[in-house]
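Field guide to reading this record: the first block holds the primary sequence, the second block holds the structure written as discrete tokens, and the final block holds curator observations. Each block starts with its own label. This record concerns Aminopeptidase N, catalogued under organism Allosphingosinicella ginsenosidimutans.

BLOCK 1 — SEQUENCE
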Amino acid sequence: PPVIRREDYSPPDWLVPDISLDFRLGAERTIVRATLQVRRNGSHRRPLLLNSEVEAIHRVTLNGEPVNYWYEDQVLRVPIEGESATVETEVRIAPRANTQLMGLYESNAMLCTQCEAQGFRRITPFPDRPDVLSRYKLRMSGDKALYPVLLANGDLVASGEGEGGTHWAEWHDPFPKPCYLFAMVAGDLVANRDTFTTMSGRKVDLGIWVRAGDLPKTAHAMASLKAAMKWDEEVYGREYDLDIFNIVAVDDFNFGAMENKGLNIFNSRYVLADPDTATDADYDAIAGVVAHEYFHNWSGDRVTCRDWFQLSLKEGFTVFRDQSFSADMGSHAVKRIEDVKMLRAAQFPEDAGPLAHPVRPDSYIEISNFYTATVYNKGAEVIRMMHTILGPERFRAGTDLYFSRHDGQAVTCEDFVKAMEDASGVDLSHFRLWYSQAGTPRIKARLVNRTEGVHVALEQEVPPTPGQPVKQPMPIPLRIALLDEATGRPTDERLIVLDKASDEIALDGAPARPVLSINRDFSAPVIVETDRSAVDLAFLSAHDDDPFARYEAMQQLMLDTLTAAVSTGGADHAPVIEAVRQTLTDANLDPAFIAEAVLLPSESFIGDRMAVVDPEAIRARREALRADLGRTLEPLWRDAYRAHVANRYAYNPAAKGARRLKTIALGYIAATGAPDAAALAKRQYDESDNMTDRQGALGVLVNGYSAERDAALQAFYERYRTNGLVLDKWFTTQALSTRDDVLDQVEALAGHPDFTLANPNRLRSLVAAFSVNQRAFHDASGRGYRFLADMILAEDKLNPQTAAKLVPPLGRWRRFDEGRAALMRAELERMVATPGLSKDVFEQASKSLA
Ligand code: DPP
Ligand code: ZN
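BLOCK 2 — STRUCTURE
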């Protein structure tokens, strides 16, 4: 398959300032007529090229006359003489047969669209690229009983009854937009309606559209939407611009959600919540995703991407915006810890493997494969570093300039950085390396005593990545402070930017016994190695005034202990146990923070820090430390558990923190092997009034062999078997179990009547979850690899985009011993050799072999 390269960009030959669409809707067949007003862009003689991946092309006319068009390789060529023309097409599409869930498809009897990145060409022939912006007018008609609600982008301008039980609606969107933001929905839906008055006093009608029974589960999404609208006005000065803003929840959806202008379409897991069915983490994710998609209205819709290599222009920036929003709504410290955990779990491994790519990639075969943690989460870190370097005022001046300068345009990452530079006067030329160089920089930092005083000696190294064997030093913003080991007091924090391979920086005002606190608040997305001793790390974990650095010191202490234990077969647990004791008994700490701080690093994070990953030894050593922590501190875990166990459900940060700490304490109690642990967990399962506690208890029980385990799993299944989103949790919890027989269970679950490849959430709930269960997935027999490859190949026939997202765990073969590496490669080779493989899976699997 052809490779698309960023350097080959050229502007579109033809523009389409206006398009009108007419849909005659049916699940089996939908007829789409499109009228495109096209205008030649520049002086050339080239024909109009329309991407087209529809079922059948019925008719093409040029200025009302039949035209000799040519259709080949999914491109329709229309020769045009003049400078502008009217091109009409009529095509047929088949929503029910659309298992890719791209274009117009059916989900639970509803018709809905997903066009990003290249789904619009599956609806109607069009120059499907983000730098072609058009004003859309749409008319749709369909069976009124099947599709009582007809929604699209923009404003509803007319509606009425048609013949034979049909009705129709006309929607006009006044804002020119790229076709990836086109959306329409037809279905039997009801709305939670509300209004929002913008800062200039305009009233906006808000609607969250769901199936009738789900209406009570929309309150949190609505509250989140209104909070996000207000926050964007206050923090970025951005006001909503249409009179209507709708969100529709869909069960079958490839992504999390989609920011279509005025009509966001969401995976229902990011809309529906009530305490009985959604966890605190689900509530947080809903608020974050609702905000994310809303924020795209400016960072994505009003100012969009010139080409798909610029994806991080909208995604990195919008993730940074949603992270900041969530931090403002809850705890900054806990949100930062969660975001960094996510980055380390998903992006660092990507950046260290065969699929590593820059935040602004240079080439792709299939763009869907580049909706990655690098583009999204590292992209957000890149924006955050600009915020750190410029400070909040100059950063805001930069975003103001960016939005005003580029409103209505399709632009590049370069345009964003330029706006930041122009508004702030700060030279960011060197900083641009963050967009072009892949790989996670590694920093070595240590304090040195010079006659003039204390210095910090820094070195950086950016590892080679595919296509980028040699790297330049990056500008790395590091927040640094020194803590006085005698008093526990910190010096003032300072920001230094390391922009050479190595440097030594004087830290004046150092205390007599300084301890280094570095990369505070995770100011740069890098790996920092220091020579700090266990004593220093324990000290920081008790005293650092930066909550993230405090968490980080504890993590480092745990990691050092565990990696030592894995390589030598044992290590001194005492420093970790003492540090956890300190944290658990520190009355000044918020339970939500304590909960994060006392959790051991994940097995895969430990693996990432080792030369060769040994999944069994990591599991064994981590479980040994867990058990030791559990036993030695058992009275404290029981105190923590009792302190929070009787709470009635409330949704606020304090109650959420209490729930989290309670279940983590329960996990440590279970790790002791205490005979009452299963009964305690079962009681929590039975008596809790919310899903967070219920799932927490189930997550503890599922790792053991008690009768309570089977009873709780059974009860959970019976209670929620008709609720797809909750049933997903049932699958995931079992896939993440630490039991030795999890592979048998996962294989059996893949044959469960409720398992299906047709629904991406269900597929991921079992298969993606299993693939991050390091010990089980990397079973030395290779059974885990075979299972994953079988699932990918089966899914590829239905939905290549979703199948391809499952490939990366197999690409980590270089990190494992020869035996496992050979087995992983064999599965990748089997995939690549499969006839009829999609280009989506081909790209991921073939690159993973390189
Ligand atoms: N643009 C969508 C988003 O918001 C794609 N999933 O991330
Ligand atoms: Zn996004």
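BLOCK 3 — OBSERVATIONS
The radius of gyration is 28 Å.
The mean pLDDT is 98.
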